[in-house]
Amino acid sequence: MTIEEIKKKLKALNGEYAKIRELPKEERKAFGVKLNKQREELERELKAAEEAAESEDVEAIDITAPAAPNEQIPVIKQGSKHPLMTELNRVLDIYSRMGFNIIEARQLDDEFHMFESLNFPEGHPARDGYDTFRTEEGFIPPAHTSTMQYRALTRFKSDLEQGGQIAVVIPGRVFRNEDVDATHEHTFYQCEGVFVSEDATFGQMLGVLKSLFENYYGQDLKIKTQPGYFPFTEPSCELLIEKPKSLGGKGDGWLEMLGCGMIHPNVLKTAGIDPERYKGFAWGGGIDRLAMLKYGLNDVRYFESGKLEFLEEF
Ligand code: DAH
Fold first, then answer.
1. 260 lines ligand 1 (CB under 6 A)
2. Which one of 30, 149, 175, 274 is CB 3.0 to 4.6 Å from 141, fit for a cystine?
3. Burial label, 24 (beta-carbon count in 10 A; 0-12, 13-18, 19+)
4. Domain ranges within the chain, ordered by starting residue
C-alpha cells in the first residue's frame, strides 16, 4: 500500500467508530477492540512506509567530490595558502633542518615580556620606538617577536643545564601603531631566533644567518653587519645581505634584513641563566620583507589587503 492508500483506509476506519452507538450494548466492546486493532495495524504500516520514503529521498553524497558549478557560483575558485604563510613555512623548514625548535608567538602579550624582560626598564626612551598598541586592560599586542625571548629561555633552560643548548625560532604576528605606507604596515610577520650555549659566538650567529639567507634565496650571498641599538643585545647590529643576483642584484646593493646581537647579560639573568657561564645570540626580522624581495613586490600593504587578484598570483 502507498502512504496515500493507508491514510485513506485510516480515515475510513475512523468513520466506523460512529457505528458503535448503533450496536446492541453487548457487541460494542468486541467491535471497538476490533477497530482499535485495525487502526494500530494501519498506523504501524504508515510509519514504516513514511520511513522508507524518507530514506529513499536522502541521496548519498560524496563530501570530498569537487563542487559542481551552478548559477549562484558560476566559477568555482580554488583557494590557496597566503603567500606569507608559504614563505614563513620555507623559513621554518630551513631552521628546523639546522636543528632549531619552533614555538609560536602570542597575539596579545604584556608589559613584562614586551619590555622589562628585554632590559627596557620603566621610562627607557627606546620603549617609544616600538609604537605599541595597548588594550583598555593594559595588554600589549606584541610589537616584535622578541617578546618571546624570555619564554624561550625559561622553557629550554633545562636543556642547557643538561649540557645542551637553547636553539629556538619563534614566528609571530606583530603590531605597530604606525602610519601605513608602501613600506610600513600596522600588522606584519616576524621570526625571532634565540641561541644559547656555553660558548656561543658572534661568528656562529653570522654563520646561521648567512646560511638562512643562502638557503632561502637559493644562491651564495655576501652578508655584512652595521652597528645598531637594541636594549636586549650587546653588541647590537643590523644584518645586511647583498642583493641576490637572481633578483637583479649586480653585487653592488645591500639590503637591511634584520636586527641581531649577543644577548644582553641582563636578559639572561632575568630568565635565570647565569651570564658568566652561558652566552647567547638572538635575531629577529620581518617575513614580509623576505617575501617582497623574493617576488619583487614594492608595496607591503598587499599582504593584509585581502585582494584576491593579488593573492591569486601565488
Ligand atoms: N625585535 C627587534 C625589532 O623588531 C629586532 C631584533 C633585534 C630582534 C635584535 C632580536 C635582536 O632578537 O637580537 O626591531
1. yes
2. 175
3. exposed
4. 3-57, 83-311
Q: Quote the cell numbers at residue 12.
A: 475510513
With beta carbons less than 8 A apart as the criterion, state whether 249 and 213 touch.
Answer: no
Polymer length in residues for the chain: 314
174 lines ligand 1 (CB under 6 A): no
172 lines ligand 1 (CB under 6 A): no
Ligand 1 pocket, mutate which of 144, 173, 208 (most atoms under 8 A from CB): 144
What are the distances in angstroms from CA 276 to CA 63, 266, 272?
61, 11, 12
Q: Is the CB of 283 under 6 A from ligand 1?
A: yes
- CA atoms 196, 202, 207, 210: torsion sign: positive
| Level-2 CATH architecture, domain 83-311 | 2-Layer Sandwich (3.30)
In this predicted model, what pLDDT tens digit does every residue of 47-64 receive, in sequence order? 988 888 877 767 778 888
- Compute the distance from residue 194 Cα to the ligand 1 centre, in Å: 11
Peptide bond into 235 cis (omega under 30): yes
pTM of the predicted model as reported, rounded to 2 decimal places:
0.77
Ligand 1 centroid distance, CA of 107 (Å)? 17
**What is the whole-number distance in angstroms between the Cα of residue 238 and the centre of ligand 1?**
9
